[in-house]
């Protein structure tokens, strides 16, 4: 197979937003407990944060972290997780049918973010709670001092405000599974009231209203339009969530998942703009893709139907998906889609960070390791700099069951004018044929390939495990040549690559 691409330098799409490389920590399964936090672990400091995990988070290049949920937030009382640990209540978490000890809470999360230079993205509970509690949480977090809740924060050891800029107005409120689920009109009104009051406290907050929890939701489209009709003036972003998996051995469709993400992003942007036009509001709502990943959801649902669990456990092992090469290629391709839409998607969170559908896995008391999906995320976060360029692609199409005919090649390019580097992120979606790529980069006049790495394997289902944590790692891309500003590369089937030139 042969494909070609060229880049245009005159009219970049948008800058690369650091917030594109966000992640998500929910009080779910072992994401917090025995994930990022495990007092007594050999690498944990006095704060209980696992240093081995923190090092991997740094290597992953995570910029923001959404917290504390997810479905969990819709039943959460934030006050339970602050103050002296021995006085914090143990509660039931109905979302995940678990016991929450509250030994890790808001202040621990903020300290953890600070040590890793991560920007927090805080979600408020609009399920069991509402306006008053959201305002209390905001006062506790952001008010400097001299009020009841800001003084309480200081007494809890945090005299400086947490100064959280980005806030999610609930989570997946369109989902019937959500505690306190609402119809679009009711949620839109509730979110608008909360948003307006939060902005009375601080007009510089960036607020994310809930969009659909997936493009296959029956209310998709009308949900976004109705919610924005109510809340357009008061919010800044609308959320998108999407999880992909290989269904019934259909690898070709799975590898084309980014085509679905492209369509999803473009539909939500068009819907938001249509509402803006109707309201005659010149503001453009940005998109926060604050849950995305590969998740073998249907497998978990089938298992849960056969073996329903009715116990209440602390930090149980739930949805600890083990990722393979194909999953990593899809994750790399989803990042290409997010970058390509940087004019609208200004924040994103891969869900989740540790153990729960995560790039980082841990054993309690034991090691931490990188799943296959860790690698495209880390390499993209490192190499995507400067501006996202418009890229013209010419590639053969191949038919897929779920997404119709898609090009076998997908790619995006970024250009850092300051350092004079250009990075190409490319995917070969063919399940069995290598792809020879001819990239015309003469407009950028690169002189050398400084780094070229590929993630692929003879076995697209090879995975990293506790026993073989480095079975799948990126390898130098061997057949890569640059001549007179034209780059040629041979991309193996089912592969994701990054090529940086200067
Ligand atoms: O990330 C796992 C769950 O997926 C989140 O709690 C929820 O928001 C989504 O449905």
Automatic annotation (TrEMBL):
InterPro entries: Alpha-L-AF_C, ASD1_cat, GH, Glyco_hydro_b. The keyword S-adenosyl-L-methionine does not apply. It comes from the Bacteria. It is an enzyme of class 3 (hydrolase). Its EC number is 3.2.1.55. One of its GO terms (molecular function) is alpha-L-arabinofuranosidase activity. Keywords: Carbohydrate metabolism, Glycosidase, Hydrolase. SUPFAM superfamilies: (Trans)glycosidases, Glycosyl hydrolase domain. It catalyses: Hydrolysis of terminal non-reducing alpha-L-arabinofuranoside residues in alpha-L-arabinosides. Residues 290-495 form the Alpha-L-arabinofuranosidase C-terminal domain. Homohexamer; trimer of dimers. Belongs to the glycosyl hydrolase 51 family. This is non-reducing end alpha-L-arabinofuranosidase. It comes from Nocardiopsis terrae.
């Amino acid at each position: 197979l042969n494909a070609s691409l060229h880049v245009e330098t005159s009219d970049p799409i948008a800058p690369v937003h650091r917030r594109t490389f966000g992640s998500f920590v929910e009080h779910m399964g072992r994401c917090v407990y025995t994930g990022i936090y495990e007092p007594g672990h050999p690498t944990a400091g006095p704060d209980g944060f696992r240093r081995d995990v923190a090092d991997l988070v740094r290597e992953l290049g995570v910029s923001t972290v959404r917290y504390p949920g997810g479905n969990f937030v819709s039943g959460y009382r934030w006050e339970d997780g602050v103050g002296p640990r021995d006085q914090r209540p143990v509660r039931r978490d109905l979302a995940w049918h678990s016991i929450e000890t509250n030994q890790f809470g808001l202040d621990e999360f903020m300290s953890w973010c600070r040590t890793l230079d991560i920007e927090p993205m805080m979600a408020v509970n609009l399920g069991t709670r509402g306006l008053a509690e959201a305002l209390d949480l905001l006062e506790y977090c952001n008010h400097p001092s001299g009020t009841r809740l800001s003084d309480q924060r200081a007494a809890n050891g945090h005299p400086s405000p947490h100064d959280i800029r980005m806030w999610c107005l609930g989570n997946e409120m369109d989902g019937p599974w959500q505690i306190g689920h609402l119809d679009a009109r009711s949620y839109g009104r509730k979110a608008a009231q909360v948003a307006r009051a939060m902005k009375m406290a601080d007009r510089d907050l960036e607020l994310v209203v809930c969009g659909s929890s997936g493009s296959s939701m029956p209310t998709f489209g009308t949900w976004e339009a109705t919610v924005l009709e109510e809340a357009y003036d008061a919010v800044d972003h609308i959320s998108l969530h999407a999880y992909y998996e290989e269904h019934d051995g259909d690898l070709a469709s799975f590898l084309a998942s980014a085509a679905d993400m492209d369509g999803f992003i473009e539909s939500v942007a068009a819907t938001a703009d249509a509402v803006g036009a109707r309201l005659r509001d010149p503001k453009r709502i940005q998109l926060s893709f604050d849950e995305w990943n590969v998740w073998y959801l249907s497998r978990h649902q089938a298992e849960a139907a056969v073996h329903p669990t009715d116990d209440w456990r602390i930090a149980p092992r739930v949805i600890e998906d083990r990722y393979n090469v194909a999953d990593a290629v899809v994750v790399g391709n989803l990042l290409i889609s997010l970058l390509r839409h940087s004019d609208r998607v200004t924040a994103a969170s891969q869900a989740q960070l540790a153990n729960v559908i995560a790039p980082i896995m841990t054993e309690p008391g034991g090691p931490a390791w990188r799943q296959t999906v860790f690698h495209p995320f880390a390499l993209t976060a490192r190499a995507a700099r400067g501006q996202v360029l418009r890229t013209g692609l010419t590639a053969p199409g191949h038919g897929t069951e779920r997404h119709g005919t898609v090009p076998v090649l997908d790619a995006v390019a970024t250009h850092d004018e300051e350092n004079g580097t250009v990075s190409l992120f490319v995917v070969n979606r063919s399940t069995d044929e290598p792809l020879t790529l001819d990239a015309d980069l003469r407009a950028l006049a690169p002189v050398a390939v400084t780094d070229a790495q590929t993630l692929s394997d003879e076995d697209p289902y090879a995975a990293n495990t506790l026993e073989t944590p480095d079975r799948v790692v990126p390898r130098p891309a061997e057949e890569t040549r640059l001549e007179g500003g034209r780059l040629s590369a041979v991309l193996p089937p089912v592969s994701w690559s990054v090529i940086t030139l200067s």
